[in-house]
Amino acid sequence: MQATNILILLLSLGAVAFYLGRSRSLAIAAPLGGIRKLHSLPSYYGMHTALWCGLPSLVLLGLWLMFDQPVINSVVISSLAADITPIDTASYNLLLNKIDNLAQGILPRKGQSDSLIAAADHMVSLKQISRWSLTALSLALSTTGLFWAWRKIGSEFRARPAVEKVIQNLLLACACLAIFTTLGIVLSVLFESIQFFRSVPIYDFVFGLDWSPQTAIREDQVGSSGSFGAVPLFVGTLLVSAVAMFIAVPIGLMSAIYLAEYASKNVRSVAKPALEVLAGIPTVVYGFFAALTVAPFLRDLGASVGLSISSESALAAGGVMGIMIIPFISSLADDVITAVPQSMRDGSLAMGATRSETVRRVVIPAALPGIVGGIMLAVSRAIGETMIVVMAAGMAAKLTANPLESVTTVTVQIVTLLTGDQEFDSPKTLAAFALGLMLFIVTLLLNIFALHIVKKYREQYE
Amino acid sequence: MSPANTDKPSMLKKAAAAKGMPMQNLEVDDHQVTVGQSFSDNAKMTMRNINVFYGDNQAIHDVSIDIAKNQVIAMIGPSGCGKSTFLRTLNRMNDTVEGCRVEGDIRMDGENLYAPKLDVVELRARVGMVFQKPNPFPKSIYDNVAYGAKIHGLADTRVDLDEIVENSLRKASLWKEVKERLHQPGTGLSGGQQQRLCIARAIAVSPEVILMDEPCSALDPIATARIEELIKELSENFTIAIVTHSMQQAARVSHRTAYFHLGKLIEVNPTEQVFTMPQHRLTEAYITGRFG
């Protein structure tokens, strides 16, 4: 039976179990004088039975699906004749693919060697066995669970805490899943980076001032030794982010102050959603807006006053990125400013402070931890932003602090390193992982820093 | 009177009937005139024919009263009777409430507080306010008290400012408790200390009138006793209007008492008289605990 069918079957079995458990508890309760004589409500008995029926076999199903393919593969390969046993991972994968295609009938059997066809048949039979045993096992498990839980039902049985416990553990499992996924991603990036640092010294990468990741594809190619100094990339990233924050922080903060403190209800109900529409624009749209409209405009503007502005300037990319981040900052700041109790404002106004004095001296200091936290989150976002800089910031890794020049960023380089044809284990490709790792560390540090600031002020004020 | 407003008295009547009390007319009639001595020869603030509206809802109906200089006047009455609203018209804090409209004539020392040219900032420096819940700013104790002085430029030097802070804290009888930790956050004080800090903050700008909106309702009896003591001391130098839910408090601290009922001013008399021989049947019903 197919896995989806098994799943549907298990779910319906669970529903039946719920019904059975519930009606058994009702049947037990009737002679005792109603459900008040039971320890838990009838639905808890039903739920308990359903959980015992469904959960173990669902876990089995998940584990089985995760492991049956690799197990079958290794059994098939190990039973192959010696003459076609693969020697390295690449040919191993190729061979497996071929056998799998033969087994599924995608590849015609005509003209294939006998040993291959035998392997394919072997695989088909193994798959069959696996599926049938899965069906039988999970059905057996769920009926056993159902029966066991059904038997346990009695007026003294504490179904409610038992169900509560299972639900708590389910929630814990979901939380763990998220954590382990993150951990997995970090570890995979870390291992690839370690591989990269085998060919390029870590010192050269972190402190190198020259970035030109062209490595030789053929041995005899000239002029492409490759150098992986990440400093220009990080300087470029910081430059673009700084321009973005320079635009986004004041505008976002001030619009938040206006919306939270000055705007009437009507203005607020129109202006706030309108501002948030900005957040809904896809970054790709911002990207070509930056590349096709803003950058040429800035270049022409510069030319008219005698300034030479590159047509792919950090200013254009950062400026548009800043506009993108405005709603982010303004809505976060608006939330924390509105959360400042009205009694603070009343207190200040009653002292004869004007509205702007109240905002400056009381509301903003009270909301500061939240505002700083929001800004730090926005910085992390600016650093990680990709699409706008890919389209508008340029490719040349120049070490400069001049926003009128073209710079490149970490994210842009990761994109260029990983697009197009290349070997997967060349330093050029692996460099992308190292860059990703460094970017991750930088954002992580920023977030920790933000949390620290927020905590510090909170201790002081609350 | 709109039909919506007649609902409440009839409910009160029902409640009284339900408790098995003698049926008594607790409604305010339309031609209600305030009884007692609303006016004073030594008035600091005069209010004539005040009406306050929140949107279409009228919260205060035709109230006229004087607040005498260097006296404490207490406003009592059941919840929702408009006494806090009335208090907030005196320093125009109702301006910050959307849809609030004030009609009538309010003067302090003869100056019209609702004149278009009047500077609200200056008015609020002259009429200070203490709120129901202590609301110290998230700043140090020192900065809390120095706040008003800084805004209004009352101190030229740091020494002046130190002096203002110390004097205000002394007047609020808080100095001894906090002089060692002036630069710690004001929010770290106890509830009663916070409220005295707010009083110190209000008197730091030397206002002429102090409005107090149920200043003790969030405090325990000991802290309440200290604040009441403080109010008595302050009345030597300041004019004070206090809204309170506690009749005992009104009796202890005030010189005159005003009784509000459903947005109308029912009776104003010297405090002693209000609590011993109230002139109006509604006042009597309230102070004897018949409703409220």
Strand and helix layout:
The complex is a heterodimer of chains A (462) and B (292).
Chain A: H1 3-32, H2 42-78, H3 89-104, H4 114-152, H5 159-199, H6 202-207, E1 211-212, E2 227-228, H7 231-262, H8 265-280, H9 283-304, H10 314-339, H11 342-350, H12 355-384, H13 387-392, H14 410-418, H15 427-461
Antiparallel strand pairs in A: 1-2
Helix pairs in contact in A: 1-2, 1-4, 2-4, 2-5, 3-4, 5-15, 7-10, 7-12, 8-10, 9-10, 10-12, 11-12, 12-15, 14-15
Chain B: H1 3-18, E1 35-36, E2 43-54, E3 57-68, E4 72-76, H2 83-89, E5 100-108, E6 111-112, H3 120-126, E7 127-130, H4 141-151, H5 158-171, H6 175-178, H7 191-203, E8 209-213, H8 221-234, E9 239-243, H9 247-253, E10 256-261, E11 264-270, H10 271-276, H11 281-287
Parallel strand pairs in B: 1-11, 4-9, 4-10, 7-8, 8-9
Antiparallel strand pairs in B: 2-3, 2-5, 5-6, 10-11
Structure description:
The complex is a heterodimer of chains A (462) and B (292). Chain A is mainly alpha-helical and 462 residues long. Chain A folds into 2 domains: 3-157, no CATH class; 227-461, Orthogonal Bundle (MetI-like fold), CATH 1.10.3720.10. Helices cover 77% and strands 1% of the residues of chain A. Chain B has 292 residues and is an alpha/beta fold. Chain B has one domain: Rossmann fold (3-Layer(aba) Sandwich). Chain B is built from 11 helices and 11 strands. In chain B, strand 10 and strand 11 form a beta hairpin. The radius of gyration of chain B is 20 Å and the shape is globular. The model of chain B is unreliable at 1-23 (pLDDT under 50). At the A-B interface, helix 11 and helix 12 of A face helix 3, helix 4 and helix 7 of B.
